[in-house]
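Appendix B. One record, verbatim.
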Amino acid sequence: MISQMKNILTAILLLASVTACDILDIEPKSQVSSDQAFTNLNNAEAVVNGMYNNLQTVYMWRVQVITDVASDMSQQVDTWDALIGPDEFNFSIDNSEVDDLYTSLYRCVDIANNIIANVPAMNISQANKDNLMGQAYFVRGLSYFDLARLFGGIPNVYGTLGVVVKLTPSVGVSESDFSPRNTLRETYDQVEADLQEALAKLPATNAAGKANKRAANALLARYYLYNQQWAEAEQFATAAIGSSTLNTPFANIFSTKNSAESIFELQFNANDGQGLRQWYFPSSLGGRGGTALHTEMYTEITANPADARAALTAFNTTAGTYYTTKWSTAQNADNFQLLRLAEQFLIRAEARAEKTPSDLPGAISDLNAVRTRARLGNTTATTKAEIIDAILNERKLEFVGEGQRWFDVIRKGQTMTEFTNVRRSKGSLPSYSISTPGKQVLPIPSAEVRTNPNIEQNEAYR
């Protein structure tokens, strides 16, 4: 980890004139030492904004596109080798986008570590301390969650090794920079501890683009879903849902920033460049057009013309492929909806179906809430197995382009069947299949393995 974490910025000061709603959309003004960064509240808040700025680089498109093209959701139709590799289940240890993703996540961790280490000694109110630290715990928990599921695996499904868990700021080079990977269980346990701490410290409401208690509840619900802790997944999804209903029209989720649907939304503008539109939209509309939906995926989305989600797809006449239009604002200025309400209903539906004893009527009710908003009729599923399959299919349709599909298939233990003979409209072969269970995770970047001899590479990439 030394190659990624040595000399990472410890603070970013933003323009003093920025308003609260725009504060995460501004380029960094300057870098300062940690001693300067935590001398007053304004500077400490700038460090928090810098942390979210780094989180943007994770979710500007990397998590979503890398995992979607590695699944049966999307395909890479241009010549970008770093995404053609994932599309063909052929990750390289030198993949530049995987390296950037890994590095950016650890940068988020290190900035969060600086906040957690330095804020307690500040001469500010306890409420301000709790808010700053709560956001740091939230982002660190999210970052380790992503590192674990991308590079380690999912408990009780695949993987035993997690990632290196570092809880103190990086200062120069020390023995901790040569630590071996923690176990997968230890990594996930750290995620849980961080998110529980975030929940305890965060306020009920916060500025747009900043975590609050509801966001912590929502991410904990996702965490417990991945860990098959069904009662807890139901509990925290219920807390995140509260009294909310799915009444935001589907198209408005993406055309309106910070709609009632969004629980946690990363803020972007034209200066940041979110990137999803750039990858999916054709060159005739100012995009690159390098990523496209699989034809079979498009067929599923549009199978029922009444489905409101079908309207957010289009045909690229130049490439002869289909693409999602969820993020359509010129200059790639759309926000990204990282946690949204529909996911919580579907988490709770799955948890209710899976728990012992099952609550199948409750699961059906939650599933139908999502279907109703999509302008579909109620599910016809009645048995437990049918309901779970229906929930997973609903997730596939609901989160097109949002980076959920890869993880859903893996966590349900369906990788080797679902990702077999994935038919493509472009490429050197008509279809691709995942060849080994070890490719359910990404390789640890080669630069990391070379720098730290104690890092063990994932088995499929040795």
